[in-house]
């Protein structure tokens, strides 16, 4: 490709520590893909993320339900980009502000970085839709911290319910409500229900597991898995009900408290733990950065993934509203983020060499969701070839192994799934955060402000 020219220095009253050819905000699928491809091409890249590791978000619910270990979904960014370390710098810092016009990024420690190109892939945040009590009492599931916090809360609530029942209180229950019947909510509800039926019984009495635990799945739409076909929706609904999940569809959540949720139709559901899978919104950094935001608070990007009015700025992944060749909006999936990252890197390389950019071409692999052990749905390729049951389960396993970063993570996931499928044992069941365990005993999660983690 040839030597990349040095970035031209510009006079500015900003405190810029160093200029780079490319500054990337977010170490998720999109940001890592950009950094890896450009680093291999010899481009000077700075990657900023609040964490020093990449987190595999599609499997966070399995961390929360103790199916896989944290190390399976977390991999150090410096390990992922070790072959590109000569050209890719990594800084673990929380981003405080982005200036899209000047292509600068300022971190909370007051340092500012500028790039000839700016790539914003800062991920998303839970969208509670201003539901009273949701942000205070519900558990989101979008980061490793979220997953370990929820894992500890579930274990704490289970121990509390078990101890109360041992004290001859027959009314003691572990009640969990999952808000959102999309793929994330369905997978989470199915995993928890399966735990109660098959795993908890190994560690507690079977009678306690069967009679004293409830899982509810709630959504304002009247079906599960809205993007899927009616056949997949019907299969999913049947499998969830077979696992004992109580479905409450067609009515929105109007409020959440420490002990229950209330629906718009007046229904009240007792739930000591509420898991929020009801939607995401783009990072709060986008509006102040100067971008005009659209659906979901995301930035509407051009077909080549740049932003109108901001030369040299790319917005990717969960931060962007990306369309396909037919103008249809693409979903917020890891495959979209990863492919958009590779395409943006390709366009940046073209610009650096004085060549024109090209429009993003998305390779549609389809949709899939796992409901439980050997029970999945998959609709593959743009033709939406439908699979259900064990074949869909194998397809789900194959795709997720392919997307995982690193052989250690891939092998760890396969070993965990194989052991879980054969024995239903969970050797990684531990309380990760004792303070959350204690907090759950008093009913209610702890909440901390989030930041961009990438997607």
From TrEMBL:
<dbReference type="InterPro" id="IPR023753">
    <property type="entry name" value="FAD/NAD-binding_dom"/>
</dbReference>
<protein>
    <submittedName>
        <fullName>NAD(P)/FAD-dependent oxidoreductase</fullName>
    </submittedName>
</protein>
<comment type="similarity">
    <text>Belongs to the NADH dehydrogenase family.</text>
</comment>
<feature type="domain" description="FAD/NAD(P)-binding">
    <location>
        <begin position="21"/>
        <end position="341"/>
    </location>
</feature>
<keyword id="KW-0560">Oxidoreductase</keyword>
<dbReference type="InterPro" id="IPR051169">
    <property type="entry name" value="NADH-Q_oxidoreductase"/>
</dbReference>
<dbReference type="InterPro" id="IPR036188">
    <property type="entry name" value="FAD/NAD-bd_sf"/>
</dbReference>
<feature type="region of interest" description="Disordered">
    <location>
        <begin position="433"/>
        <end position="455"/>
    </location>
</feature>
<keyword id="KW-0285">Flavoprotein</keyword>
<dbReference type="Pfam" id="PF07992">
    <property type="entry name" value="Pyr_redox_2"/>
</dbReference>
<feature type="compositionally biased region" description="Low complexity">
    <location>
        <begin position="446"/>
        <end position="455"/>
    </location>
</feature>
<keyword id="KW-0274">FAD</keyword>
């Amino acid at each position: 490709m040839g030597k990349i020219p040095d970035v031209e220095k510009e006079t500015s009253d900003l405190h810029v520590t160093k200029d780079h050819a490319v500054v990337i905000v977010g170490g998720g699928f999109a940001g890592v893909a950009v950094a890896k491809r450009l680093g291999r091409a010899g481009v000077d890249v700075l990657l900023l993320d609040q964490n020093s590791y990449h987190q595999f978000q599609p499997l966070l619910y399995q961390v929360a339900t103790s199916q896989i270990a944290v190390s399976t979904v977390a991999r150090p960014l410096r390990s992922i980009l070790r072959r590109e370390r000569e050209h890719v710098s990594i800084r673990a810092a929380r981003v405080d502000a982005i200036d899209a016009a000047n292509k600068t990024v300022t971190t909370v420690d007051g340092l500012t970085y500028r790039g000839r190109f700016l790539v914003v892939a800062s991920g998303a945040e839970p969208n509670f839709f201003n539901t009273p009590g949701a942000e205070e009492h519900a558990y989101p599931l979008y980061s490793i911290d979220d997953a370990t916090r929820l894992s500890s809360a579930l274990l704490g609530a289970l121990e509390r319910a078990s101890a109360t029942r041992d004290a001859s209180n027959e009314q003691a229950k572990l009640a969990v409500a999952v808000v959102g019947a999309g793929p994330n909510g369905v997978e989470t509800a199915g995993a928890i229900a399966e735990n109660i039926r098959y795993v908890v019984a190994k560690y507690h009495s079977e009678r306690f597991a069967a009679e004293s635990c409830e899982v509810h799945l709630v959504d304002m739409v009247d079906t599960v898995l809205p993007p899927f076909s009616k056949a997949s929706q019907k299969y999913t609904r049947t499998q969830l009900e077979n696992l004992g999940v109580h479905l409450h569809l067609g009515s929105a959540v109007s409020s959440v408290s420490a002990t229950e949720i209330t629906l718009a139709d007046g229904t009240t559901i007792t739930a000591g733990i509420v898991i929020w899978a009801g939607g995401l919104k783009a990072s709060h950094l986008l509006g102040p950065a100067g971008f005009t935001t659209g659906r979901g608070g995301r930035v509407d990007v051009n077909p080549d993934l740049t932003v109108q009015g901001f030369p040299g700025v790319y917005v990717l992944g969960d931060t962007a509203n990306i369309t396909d060749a037919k103008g249809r909006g693409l979903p917020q999936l890891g495959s979209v983020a990863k492919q958009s990252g590779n395409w943006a890197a390709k366009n940046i390389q073209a610009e650096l060499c004085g060549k024109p950019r090209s429009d993003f071409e998305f390779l549609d692999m389809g949709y899939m969701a796992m409901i439980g052990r050997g029970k999945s749905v998959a609709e593959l390729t743009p033709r939406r070839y439908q699979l259900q049951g064990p074949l869909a389960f194998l397809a789900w396993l194959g795709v997720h192994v392919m997307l995982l970063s690193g052989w250690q993570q891939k092998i760890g996931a396969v070993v965990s799934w194989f052991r879980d499928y054969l024995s239903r044992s969970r050797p990684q069941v531990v309380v990760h955060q004792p303070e959350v365990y204690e907090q759950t005993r008093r009913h209610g999660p702890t909440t901390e402000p989030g930041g961009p983690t990438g997607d």
